[in-house]
Design a protein that fits this description.
This protein is mainly beta and about 180 residues long. The chain has a single domain, classed as Nucleoside Triphosphate Pyrophosphohydrolase (Alpha-Beta Complex). Helix content is about 10%, strand content about 45%. The strands form 4 sheets. Strands 1, 2, 3, 5, 6, 8, 9 and 10 form an 8-stranded mixed beta sheet that branches. A two-stranded antiparallel sheet has the order 4-7. Strands 11-14 form a two-stranded antiparallel sheet. The protein is globular.
């Protein structure tokens, strides 16, 4: 099992994206993605995402917002990946070149036109909402075979009562409401 983070840094209607370098032997080569990486032993997701963003961009993020969790069963070498998805709007520092690939500020309206993982547009649309999501994306040989996403109202989940899900196409959307 791999634990990882992914961060979408937002500024003026744009998102900082990383195009993975073609020189790396990686399943991510050539794809655009947010910044992030694997958790180190003893790290919290927040510590990891802050470290990874700094290592990949030279930027120091403040108060990253946890927006969702993604599950990728048997993603690489038959190993499950669990990815904490963050949005960051507050940051400092100067953007630097990345050893991981090319960085670019992409207009939010253009994000889904990039060569992304096939499932990314499904959850990217929820990043701007004040709701938490949990998604499961099953890939085989780099191709999205199935997915399911559950949306929770009111930001990060607490201990609210869950109501029956609403099914729309391949997306399973459930709402949660905090009951006092």
């Amino acid at each position: 099992m791999k634990l990882a983070t992914l961060c979408y840094i937002k500024r003026d209607g744009k998102t900082l994206m990383l195009r993975r370098a073609a020189t790396q032997a990686s399943i991510h080569t050539g794809k655009w993605n947010g910044l992030g990486g694997k958790l180190k032993s003893g790290e919290t997701p927040e510590e990891c995402v802050t470290r990874e963003v700094y290592e990949e961009s030279g930027l120091t993020i403040q108060s990253p917002e946890l927006r969702g969790i993604l599950t990728f069963p048997a993603f690489q070498d038959e190993e499950d990946w669990y990815v904490y998805v963050f949005v960051a709007r507050d940051f400092s520092g100067t953007l630097t070149e990345s050893n991981e690939g090319s960085l670019a500020w992409i207009p939010d309206t253009e994000l889904t036109k990039l060569p992304l993982w096939e499932g990314d547009p499904i959850f990217l649309k929820y990043l701007h909402e004040d709701r938490f999501f949990s998604g499961k994306f099953v890939y085989q040989h780099g191709k999205l075979m199935e997915h399911r996403i559950v949306i929770y109202s009111g930001g990060s989940p607490g201990l609210p009562k869950q109501y029956p899900p609403v099914v729309t196409g391949h997306e399973r959307v459930a709402t949660r409401r905090v009951v006092p």
